[in-house]
Design a protein that fits this description.
The complex is a heterodimer of chains A (278) and B (250).
Chain A: H1 2-19, E1 33-38, E2 41-42, E3 46-49, E4 57-58, E5 66-68, H2 70-82, E6 85-90, H3 93-101, E7 107-112, H4 116-119, E8 123-130, E9 133-138, E10 156-158, H5 164-168, E11 176-177, H6 184-192, E12 198-202, H7 203-212, E13 216-219, H8 231-234, E14 235-240, H9 245-256, H10 260-273
Parallel strand pairs in A: 1-6, 1-7, 10-11, 10-12
Antiparallel strand pairs in A: 2-3, 3-5, 4-5, 7-14, 8-14, 9-12, 9-13
Helix pairs in contact in A: 2-9
Chain B: H1 13-23, H2 25-58, H3 68-90, H4 93-104, H5 114-140, H6 143-151, H7 156-186, H8 198-205, H9 212-249
Helix pairs in contact in B: 1-9, 2-3, 2-5, 2-7, 2-8, 3-5, 4-5, 5-7, 6-7, 7-9, 8-9
Classes of the chains: A alpha/beta (278), B mainly alpha (250).
């Protein structure tokens, strides 16, 4: 037993030692490339594809796999502005912040909302997209004609693990808050297969899903009928390491050059390029 | 030739499957290759490393001849082997993957990719399981074999490596084959650190069309083909060994 304990202590020690990353910041003059991390499973922000086109970028270390989407186009624009080569790595949603902190990637451009909780460990850029939170339900189901959150009393509602949407569920009175799932594809499947009544998503994500799955419908809310959200809940930002202040400034400068019209157009085009149902 | 240029409607299950296979064949092929690579390297590497563990675990302290240093080293080796097996069999591979991959990546080694981390984790994990298999294989070899070897002038080590271990490994082969089958399926958990195995390939193929059930239906069939073929090979091995035993008795 003592030996087991000894081994565990050694292991923890080794991990702790390995976790002491350097405090040197990203040097824009020395570095030739920067690494962006995303899920490659959050269309239309980012998704995996076998198609190489003018927007898609090859996924690092995985020949034949490309990523496309709003985040990818914005990443390319930032890369052009910074004069650096763009490398994109895919990671599970939960693994993105650990990967950023460990130096595995330099930025998260993955449709991430800059919540106060996340801002304790990472730095966020200015917004690069603004959207609204909607509910997605089954087209033929009991909630297809809901108009306010109150209509979801008693509904089984689900969201992605570790997301803002998962927290928003609790704003619905009398809701049956289901355990969160790993990807948006699973959320769509849960509602389509009647394992849940509804899930919460950002509008463009929901639009992409409805385009591919006719059995899903978006519920948008007007005025006071929807979620009470703060600014940080409806915008997405680039996440960086807190010590990389120069890089943050450069990213903000690059983002400032992309107008709202351009942003909306990039998003509309990304929605078009997704696997669309005939 | 692309038969399905666009995604079929949601209610067309089979057409969706054909569409996914056609459009994402590259993903599925790559996924299968990576899954096979993980299983082959994991099982072979695990087999080789497990021999070292077994060696450490089966040494016996000789109180008359061993010096104090040898005795301590043997005890340490034995302790390490027991601890190793306890830790790696007692924790899920998905947990080991998270600790190893993210624990080592701060060192910023350029070769420390998810695939390499996956190969390391599956090998270390399989080592623990095969070590147990071989240990029971050794227990299954008649004690008389070692006694005979000793009486013929073999040292303990020679007796173990030339007489007992070959028989133990031969008896363990079907169980090691089963370990390979387990690896084919269980390496799916390595997708959590970004290894592009069959599971992640399927996730990627459904990342912009959300046809998860159809996509994983394809994955299930591929996994089934892989495990079915392997289990047939293992069965053959079993039968061949039974035949070998009968010949030996005759």
């Amino acid at each position: 037993m003592k030996k087991v304990l000894f081994f565990v202590v050694m292991l923890v020690g080794a991990v702790a030692l390995a976790s002491c990353s350097s405090n040197e910041q990203f040097d824009l003059d020395v570095e030739t490339e920067f690494v962006v991390g995303l899920e490659a499973a959050y269309a239309p922000f980012n998704w995996s594809t076998s198609v190489e086109n003018e927007f898609s970028v090859p996924l690092a270390g995985q020949p034949g796999v490309f990523v496309d989407g709003y985040d990818v186009v914005v990443s390319s624009m930032i890369a052009d502005e910074l004069g650096l080569d763009l490398v994109i790595k895919a990671n599970d949603w939960d693994g993105l912040i650990p990967a950023l902190l460990s130096g595995e990637i330099d930025m998260i451009i993955a449709g991430m909302s800059p919540t106060a909780e996340r801002a304790e460990t990472v730095a966020f850029s200015d917004e690069y997209f603004r959207s609204e939170q909607v509910v997605v339900v089954s087209t033929g189901g009991a909630y297809a004609h809901a108009t306010s959150l109150a209509d979801f009393n008693g509904a089984r509602v689900v969201a992605q693990l570790g997301t803002l949407q998962d927290d928003l569920i609790d704003q619905i009175t009398g809701v049956n808050h289901l355990d969160p799932l790993d990807t948006y594809a699973l959320l769509a499947t849960a509602v389509a297969q009647n394992a849940a009544d509804a899930f919460i998503a950002e509008l463009p994500v929901a639009q992409g899903m409805v385009a591919t799955n006719s059995n899903l419908t978006i519920i948008r809310f007007t005025g006071e009928n929807g979620f009470t959200v703060s600014d940080e809940d409806v915008i997405v930002s680039v996440a960086l390491r807190q010590e990389d202040v120069n890089l943050l400034a450069a990213v903000n400068e690059a983002l400032a050059g992309i107008s709202t019209d351009t942003r909306n157009q990039i998003m509309a085009e990304a929605l078009e390029r997704q696997d669309n149902a005939s | 030739m692309m038969v399905f240029a666009t995604l079929p409607p949601k209610d067309e299950f089979l057409n969706t499957i054909f569409y996914l296979v056609e459009r994402y064949s590259g993903f599925f092929i790559r996924g299968v290759l990576i899954t096979l690579l993980l299983s082959v390297v994991g099982t072979l590497g695990g087999f080789i490393l497990s021999l070292f563990l077994t060696l450490l675990r089966t040494t016996e302290v000789d109180h008359r001849r061993d010096t104090w240093l040898t005795r301590t080293l043997k005890r340490l080796g034995r302790g390490f082997s027991v601890t190793y097996i306890t830790v790696f069999r007692g924790t899920p591979m998905i947990v080991q993957a998270m600790i190893f991959y993210y624990g080592i990546s701060p060192l910023r080694l350029s070769w420390w990719t998810p695939l390499i981390a996956g190969l390391v984790v599956v090998t270390l994990n399989t080592t623990a399981y095969i070590a147990e298999v071989i240990r029971s294989g050794i227990n299954g070899v008649d004690k008389g074999q070692m006694e005979a070897a000793r009486s013929l002038g073999f040292s303990r080590r020679e007796g173990m490596f030339l007489i007992v271990l070959p028989q133990a490994i031969k008896n363990s082969l079907p169980a090691i084959g089963n370990e390979f089958i387990v690896n084919l399926k269980d390496t799916a958990v390595l997708s959590v650190i970004g290894v592009f195995d069959l599971f992640r390939a399927t996730q990627s193929a459904t990342s912009s069309n959300f046809r998860v059930v159809e996509g994983f239906f394809i994955a299930a069939i591929i996994y089934l083909i892989l495990t079915f073929i392997t289990s047939k090979v293992v069965q053959r091995l079993d039968v061949a060994m039974e035949a070998g035993k009968e010949n030996a008795h005759a």
